[in-house]
User: Fold these one by one.
Assistant:
Number 1:
Amino acid sequence: MKTRFNTYDIVCVVTELQKLIGLRVNNIYDIDNKTYLIRLQRNEEKFVLLLESGNRIHTTNFEWPKNIAPSGFSMKMRKHLKNKRLESLRQLGMDRIIDLQFGSSEAAYHIILELYDRGNIVLTDYEYTILNVLRPHTEGDKVKFAVREKYPQDRARENKTISKEEVVNIFENAKNGDQLKKVLVPNLEYGPAVIEHVLLKQGFTNATRIGKSFNIQEDIDKVMAALTEAERIFQLAKQNHEKGYIIQKKEERASETAEEFYSNQEFHPILFEQHSSMPHKEFANFNEAVDEFFSSLESQKLELKAVQQEREAMKKLENVRKDHDQRLEALEKTQNVDKQKAELITRNQELVDKAILAIQTILANQVSWEDISDMVKDAAAKGDPVAKHIKQLKLEINHISLYLTDPYAEPQDSDESSDENQLPPMVVDVDLALSAFANARKYYDLKRSAAKKQQKTIESQTKALKSAERKTKQTLKEVQTITNINKARKTYWFEKFFWFVSSENYLVIGGRDQQQNELIVKRYMKPTDVYVHADIHGASSVVIKNPSGQPVPPKTLNEAGTMAICYSVAWEAKVVTNAYWVWGDQVSKTAPTGEYLTTGSFMIRGEEKLPTAVASNFGLEDGCVERHLGERKVLTATEEDALSLADSSQSKEEVELEILDESDEDNLKEETNTEELKSSENIPETTQVEGDDDDSSDSDAGPKFPDTHIKIQHVGGTKINILTKPSTKIEENKNEDDVIYLGDGKPVVLKPSQKSRRNKSKEEIKQQSQSKRGQKSKLKKIKEKYKDQDEEERQLRMEILQSSGTGKETKKSKKNKDSHGKDRKTEIKLPKPFFVKERPEDGAEDDEANVQVDVDMIDALTGIPTAEDELLFAVPVIAPYNTLSNYKFKVKLTPGTGKRGKAARTAVAMFLKDRTITQREKDVLKAVKDEQLARNLPGKVKLSAPKLQTLKK
């Protein structure tokens, strides 16, 4: 497969790229350490020029994945080339070197691209002094490619016309038998494709060889005519734009149902003679052909891999068939040989008995084995009729080998067919412990045994072949399905980070390292987004994308805080720490002293204090998205009550219980008492608001409705401390009928099954609450604490916590409705920005469009697929366990000793064993690559799930 430009390709592409002259450099990016993108623009004209060291240069319309953080070489080019105009683009001589000049006179800079050998990209100033070089090295003893060295402009080979005498000299120096094309290619600048093309035009095939089918004196004129044609092709390419062609090869598919697949082999500016009979695709220009060729390499690799897997599956099936055939053939041959040996012994019974008796007699006289061998040889030499038939003594196994012939065979002419009953002579092993008749019977028994094996093999062959064919068909089907899934798989922009979608449909992203932390804050975080960080050095910077700009609900803040803690050293250390959150405009790269902070470090003004599982999201077809809208939304208190009542009766076997020990409870009480003491001592500066909210814990120990204390201090900036502690205050639903009022005020009539589950759950809650120790004293404390609280104060506190409480409209709330019917709820004022957040000058516009459609993209992902959904692919996600509580496929992760890769594979294996899984869900789960499964795991883990040990066994 062709993967790099030759000289003729460079001539053609340079001619086409002249249209870029006059465009200014908008920005520069790097795809990898060898491939760079230069974005050029003039008014409405926009082009992206791709440079790959050693391989290619062309414009591209394909969206290439850029590196997360620009490399040092990219930054250097940005510094010198940004906003410069492309003044010239030329090929140096006839060599594979291209010089791009940006800017003019003393402000000019050059990018020199080398497309031969290992390749190189060199950045120089107007005097060709090297400012940066992609691959520093030394050529010979003098020429150095390093910073501050001069780039040698005269190193390129010039185009020169070769004379007839020089061509004759080339042929005379060649060896007899050398291929004509291979002799000319290294001595000319036209390239192998052009030379082969012009030689074929003159009647010279690839089989033409010097001194055999080629005569120098007779054929030199044809060769010169071919070289003249090659020169004409080059001159035309320098003046006119050529079309583009991709030469293809039809791949033989093992599966008859699979579509025909043509793999791309080569790209060329013209359709050469040697490719005219091959399948090919034509393009308007050479740039388009090259762009299509390289942009489709990845999908082509998937198809080629599928073709290879199909071939291997069919090869296994063929091997099974061959193995059975070979077994049957061997058993048939064994039967024939054993039968012939038995008949030979029978027909030579007297001779065999005499040989056995002679050897037994000598052995009875206690003669050594070496002497016996010598005696047999001497007797055979003297013409003994018995001894001359003994070919070998195998006394260690009590056998002798006799050369036996058919005594009843009649001599026949060579041209006549032999008698079927005539036995061929052969060496037969005879057991000395048996008579001739017994030896013959032994061979007959072996023949019958082989016949039985043959019959069993024939009987099992049908079943084995059918089983192998069924497995092969299933393999072919899976290969094709997985290939189609991988082709349809969308790579979302946020997958390069740690990420998950919160239970309230907020996209949460986190950096994998310092560079990604820097990138998230600079490029992806907006002032309305929320920045979350664990209270530990070196943790991931977590950002909650908040397109609406409204306050982010506490549940999502809690989940993001859990993520920040898990993606830190706290996971490996198995410790729990706090997490903090601030608004996006409270994050800065500048310290109070004016010092610029290092990569991944930020200055935070003000902070709010905050108190995991692997699953699979499924990509939905556009028509199925509407069915899953509202799966992840902000739930009110009553909605959560209804969900918890329904869920409590459905799942009685918990995956894993989170239990606090006595020390944890003491610390929690001590921390709470300290905060209460501080708030009571500092009444003028502190406003305390207390309210009830539901805990989203998944424990079966009993319902928990934590009292949340919000402490607001006005010291240099707003500081909100959110602390949670267990509470046993149970709020019964005020309506005892079959209607539940949700947070939006809409009544929902429960079905009989839901009603029975609710009543059953209430009875269980009541029994559990009565049986818990210390419950009465806690209820007494709560009653004493909230004895002066009225309904209005409670409602205000619930609104501060963004919960609608009971969900019913009070008389006062009805009065507060404005003329348009909207509620006048208490607003929580956002902190005012301390500064304008820094924005990068480069690259921001690339991702703006992607970031703007966050909600649209995550709405197309669901963790609760239905049978009616058309699933496109699966996306593994790591998130707090409460976030994934309603997902169909999930397994709990805790810090442990298991390796990430093995844990991820075990999780998928558990998903595939699910009884409710559909075939399409199996297919998309199998298509997920191992590296995608394990890359987001926080470290060494332990899996927790029902019947997990049974699965491992």
Number 2:
Amino acid sequence: MSSLKRKTSEEEDNGRQVIQRSDDTVACVHDVSYPDGYVIPVPNQQQQQQQQQPAKTFPFSLDPFQSQAISCLEKGESVMVSAHTSAGKTVVASYAIAMSIRNAQRVIYTSPIKALSNQKYRDFKEQFSDVGLMTGDVTIDPNASCLVMTTEIWRSMQYNASPVTREVAWIIFDEVHYMRDRERGVVWEESIVMSPKNSRFVFLSATVPNAKEFADWVAKVHQQPCHIVYTDYRPTPLQHYLFPSGGDGLYLVVDEKGKFREDSFQKALNSLVPAGEGDRKRESAKWQKGLMLGRGGEETDIFKMVKMIIQRQYDPVILFSFSKRECEFLAMQMAKMDLNGDEEKDNIEKIFWSAMDMLSDDDKKLPQASYVSNMLPLLKRGIGVHHSGLLPILKEVIEILFQEGLIKCLFATETFSIGLNMPAKTVVFTNVRKFDGDKFRWISGGEYIQMSGRAGRRGIDERGICILMVDEKMEPSTAKMMVKGAADSLNSAFHLTYNMILNQMRSEDGNPENLLRNSFYQFQADRAIPDLEKQIKTLEKERESIVIEEEDSLKDYHDLLEQHRSLNKEVHDIVMSPMHSLIYLQPGRLVSLQCTSSDVDVPTIFTEDQLTWGLVISFEKVKSVSEDDASIKPEDAKYNVDVLTRCVVRKDKLGKKSVKIVPLKDVGEPRVVTVPLLQINTISSLRVYIPKDLLPLEARENTLKKVLQTLSRSNEKGGVPLLDPEEDMKIKSSVYKKASRRIEALESLFERHEIAKSPLIKQKLKALQMKQELTAKIKSIKRTLKTSTALAFKDELKARKRVLRRLGYATSDNVVELKGKVACEISSADELTLTELMFNGVFKDIKVEELISLLSCFVWQEKIHDAAKPREELDLLFVQLQDTARRVAQLQLECKFYNAITSSFFLDHEKQVQIDVESFVKSFRPDIMEAVYAWAKGSKFYEIMEITQVFEGSLIRAIRRLEEVLQQLILAAKSIGETQLEAKFEEAVSKIKRDIVFAASLYL
């Protein structure tokens, strides 16, 4: 610490310290959150003595943030450590464990995934012998002083009032930023809120800008101080490069000091090969996935990239992709590259086969087909693949080989960046679009930081290297946002579940309302209140400053304009519907269309200045993303129209092109643009001859000159002749006629209106519109304020309780009934549907293998296209499941149940979305029923892989989850005294728990 100094400031009185290095760069920031009314105790002599005797020493100098966090632990106070991946947060966890063991206390270490728990168990077991493991799959030494477990197990122990919860002194929550995970984040929130009041916490998190807010929440809920130690420090600094599509190399855009280089960024974008010249356009579309083989089978961009990395000695390298199949495909493209020597090849073979020797002879037949013939030769060359679809044992072999430096080039999905401490020298992003469960999107700055943090090995590399492959599809602003890398805030993803509500009702001190009140979600909502009140005052002041003469009369006139515009739109949409307009959109047809404008238009009656003319070239149906595209009638489909008109093409500062349609007389280039059918305003009865070849600029310019001449002649004769909707287009719709009559009536009212001839009418209307927008904004914020001051999810909780009462799970006095006791035990599948099937007698009447097959529908979530339909008896069971699910969803709908979808930007608050019955029913998938049935019947794993097209690892994960559900059903049956069902579920477990599917982890 000699080269460090503490910055003294007014903030330090509140506990905040900025610790700086001698070169005045910030090493870390230490802050502390106290609950209201907390009195800081004076340390006693015993505590001071303990501080002189560290619980654990390390064979290296500690970083400032590590020293600071450890001193907080020695005070016996909770701490949140927010630091980059690979910064060394595990040192703090190790010290907390050593300190607990020294003080003869119990400590819990929770992690988000089983694989990480297994790895941490191995690491801690080597350091401290008194360590146990609980993951659901495996239980080792549950009475140990230090227990490593998944967060889900810790939550269950709290609900089941396990004796461990009364003994624990310290709880370590690793990867606590997982709390923002949409599906599983709520488990962290529940676990933290319900943790014993006398326990202390260690929270380890990636960098989050609102770490202080999180610590404030912990201090408030647990009435104890919570320290924050935050650092942006990277032990190994990073350099960020762009690799442009079709370019000639790398461009350094962020240097090791974190400075963004704008000139280099622009050069990289300018060297992108424009996707315009025939073949190049097709090639560029395939480039980002690295699937393009050059002419004559030349090297791919990915191959060139890896070759360059190896030549520059930037290996080992992790290449991130977000598709399992793409990872394997890209790795196979490297097959002719050899990165290992003979000795390394021998070592790989020994490690590989010693792991595979754990499998039975039959299970070795499975890798024979795909992994030994494909994967082992690849591994021996120093090239590996890591994704969730691999066999768990193979995935662990690859992790071990990578840690040993025997894999130089690893193609991995995002899961490799979570928790596993396996850094490389270089990280490459081959693709930065991911499917998040709803849609494809660019990864966020925070996700980029998490994955790029794998670059740079501490004590080995001077710097880590991150390479982002970009093509024309990526907006320059998106690329800039990523490489500049702003961390994502830690926002609550709290949501209610029936299992949570029932367990809260059943717990001795449980109360769902208390859980909501103490949630981080509620805390963030309450925090937003002062800011919302301030916004309202500011907007009200701004609104009052807008004074308009004759405001009431102007409002009346404005309302008439709005009605007129609405009716005009109604008429326009009828006339321009495919049913009426397509037949007239022949090539050469003159049409008027909207100019592209960035200005906010003031509503006016006549909009000639916003229109221009163009010639129809062709039109085509827009392909729907829906699977039922073929069932859409032509008149209901959407269409795009290619129109020759005048445009201005501009490039913004970031190099993004924009095409703006302008009036024909303006300066610009003649260009064929694609517009939605509804952007066409009117159709003329005139047609103009189009030359066969419009590619030459001269041909397009001459054609537009003809159009201008035609328009000029028509205007001399009284205007451009238009197709009459009733006479020419034969529109007989009563809606059209009614709207047309109302438009005529409104136009006569305009002429007689007292304010119509008022000077500065446009400016007055603009001011009125601004005032109305401010009023709408104030109303919106007031609604948000109202929901913030109320208890979050209060209405949803009432609706869910209604559902539980109607189904007989709980009484109106919140007493949990027999069915409720069953649902309390089920947290790994849909608890209501599963409980209903159990009480309907479905499980009693079927064979064990059929029961296992049916339960697979609860755990399988991946979509398989063209999945074979299961056999008749299984299909009948699936229909029963669907009927039960439909009944459960229908009841929720009747009870006015809504799903709360939390916005990523908190102040938008949650949107209320009514449950979709059919979507809920479709969430149960029969795709692996046959495969699981065969497994339960005793088939070998290699045999069941022949009847399904899923990844081995994905199927193993599903069967393991299935075993988890069965274990919960055993406890559920036991809780209500159903001994026959309990025995049936136990038999089901014995039928599936075997061989490669439940092979022990290599880490254990």
